[in-house]
Amino acid sequence: MTRSLLRLLGGLALFALVLWFADPWRVLQVLGRPDPLWLLAGFAAAVVASITSALRWHALAEWLGLQATRRSLLFAYWRGITANTVLPGGHLGGDALRALHLQRAGHSLVSVAASVALDRLSGLWMLATISLTTTALALSLDMLQAALPGISVPLMTLVALLALICPVLAWQVSDSARRRLPVKLGQMLNTLHERSRPLALYFSQMLWSTGVQLLSIMAFACGGHSVGLDLSWWVYFIASGPIFLLAALPISIGGWGTREAAAVVTLGVFGAPRDLAIATAILYGLFAALQGLLGALTLLQTKDTD
Q1: What are the tens digits of pLDDT across the range 185-198?
Q2: pTM to 2 decimals?
Q3: In terms of Cα–Cα distance, which of 135, 134, 154 is closest to 145?
Q4: Which DSSP string do the residues of 209-227 spell out, in sequence order?
């Protein structure tokens, strides 16, 4: 309880500090006159990203032998967004709720935990890959020399490639190390390595997660364009990596505070004014909060969704 309270207070304090440095009145003015079409496009992209995330989780669950309908996992995913909106700990609250949903359906805790953990890691993996690959490409085209001077194109290309093949490397390492790990972790890894066609899952998750992240970045960029932050789309592809990763840290509620601070720093590298960067991050957070409300409404459903 004390730790959760500290996370809540820390996130709120960081959010207030970022607002204070950017001038809260200017941020409110920007938020008061967004372009409605860009705003609607951003929210629509965020909703489709969540649906795609739920379908990605369903594909993982099937690979692990967990029987669940797409509809039930979509409900569980949106309820997870609700938990992330109101509970401290980044995505941990929502992930725990999703795991509980599958466990109550009679599945083993090890398989359930593996499905949720791999789903979360799949998204973060492809987010980092997209951001790093776009950075390497922009550097090779001499588009980032002013913003990121001194960064080597070959080095960034190598880092992007390592990010892409990281799951394959992790699979090989875990296969050789699973017998020497603690029992519960070893059991989870055994569950994974006993499944067939892991390479097919790798490519499947690559496609699903690419779709999720492209839609999420589109939602973020549309929010930026709605408040007049008319940066190039490739800038949003690069900046969304650190912004989304920091928002996912388990030190706030719904990413509030960490997301806005990361937006100020990352978008500031590309010349974005503080008020517009913060407004963009706030709108993206509101897209998630509105989906959290949709998730709360699904709790009113009395029919069994399993």
Answers
A1: 777 788 888 888 89
A2: 0.89
A3: 135
A4: HHHHHHHHHHHHHHHHHHT
